[in-house]
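Weekly sync notes, structure subgroup
Attendees: PM, AL, DS (notes)

Item 1: joint prediction request from the bench team. They want all two components modeled as one assembly rather than separately. Inputs as received:
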Amino acid sequence: MAGFNKEELHKIAHLSALKIDDKESDLFVEQIKTILAYVDQLQEIPMSTQAQSVRNINVLRDDQAYQFDSSQILAQAPERNENYFVVPTILEEK
Amino acid sequence: MKTFATIQELKSGLQKKELSSKEVLDFYSARIAQHAPALNCMIENFSNPSGNNSENNSGNNGLLDNIPCVIKDNICQHNRITSAGSKILSNYTAPYDATVIQRIKRAGAVIMGRTNQDEFGMGGSGEFSPYGPTKNPWDTSRVPGGSSSGSAAAVAAGLVPFALGTETGGSVRGPASFCNLVGMYPTYGLHSRFGVIAFASSNDQVGALTKTVYDNALIATALSGHDPKDSTSLNVPAQDYTKNLDGKLPENMTIGVIKDALTSEGIDPQVRAAFDRSIKQLESLGAKIKIIELPTLKYSIAVYFIISRAEAASNLSRYDGSLYGQRAQDTHNLLDMYIKTRDEGFGIEVKRRILVGNYVLSAGHRDAYYNKASQVRAMIRAEFENAFKEVDLLISPTTPTLPFKIGELSNDPVAMYMADYFMANCVIGTPAISIPSGFSSEGLPIGFQFFGPRLSEALLYKTAYAFEQSTDYHLKHPKNYE
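Output from the run, pasted for the record:
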């Protein structure tokens, strides 16, 4: 936590697909440091051995195809070509 | 028409034909048109309300026949824009109704619009909305609480008799407390989340904002029942939560006062004084009072922070401009499109939470933060379970402070988050109900809450109703809206 700095911020921003401009980055570093310092209090708690996490159970349904009208879903596409979603270039030529 | 009528009163008027459905609809349409703009509580007023069942009565169980309502913007309504209060979804039209919407429509409710909120539910004040802050009808210079800010303000100002909100860590009960309303966070899984836009999936639940306990129990009755479309929906039968509301506490009831509510320094003296009066009131109704220590409670905000930010970072990764929602223009490759779309679409609080979330989940930090928080979460759960072996319900103030001024805390995230001190039950998925419990010297509402064990909603409603009926706080309304 003590190590949280601009470099760390930009690394996390990249992982998050977010852009942080220089103006924002000082404020974000300070605020996130404060938040991390606050949550660091959990480190002081001795762990009880009895407290078990809740076990989640997968809920499955039958593997059956069903029909639905896809036109309304496709209509939401920012850009489309017939039944395809169109996005910008993924692999650029070198 | 009576301003501030409850659902119960409207139902009775409609059934006795003292009121017509058109009269009711016209009255509330006019109320919304008159007051919603200044309160900034609505993102959209529907010119043609949904769910009016006059033409199609099939399957209607009549619970909410012709009762108008408004819906938080993160609950999908078929063929309506559903944006979760975010620019990134400002053009998203929901292709289906959320299960809770289907259920209130089936009950006959009429949906008048969608309400303002903190973006994706991320805020405790209603200030983190690209549509601007919602104002509290009790004092328009103050916040109504968040994130279900518009839903609470609309009901408090008498623009509709009820609204749906959602809560992840106080987002129904906080606004209920700041606006003199009743708000329930139900047992996790009691109400379906199908069609509810996710913030932190292991905490998110739908809850109603109403003027009275009876009305709240009525909405819970309409919403409850298993939903196979939500894999976390509990397989418990629907039940009528209004049926045991007789104005009496259960016999030999013991109520536990959470010790932090009496000792914590952050509690406003007027909130504390109202809480002390509520304890006396419960004693006079026959409850035995016991002080209960929950030593791990003070860590619940930190646990909530970590878990909710981690889940938010994961849930919000889907908003990238590919399939729906807004997409940034003039981008030269896919990653550039993701980044520009998210930069333009998300507000500052949402970005802050995604950053913290991905940090606590990232390599080298996961054990120290997320895994540790999960372990402490289990300790908090065990502590509450032990407490409920000694007492039937627990109580605390809902929020430690009075409604604060708009802008007062918006640049101090940690101070703002402290308002969630008594929302610890969200991290363990047990229910709590906030109800009115008095006013400050300047006339601002103060609430307090009952916590119960899993699936104790019937007991919570019964107890809250008995308290409410012995007081008159719920009969008071903000001036300027009569």
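Discussion: Chain B has 15 helices and eleven strands.
Action: AL to compare against the crosslinking data before next sync.
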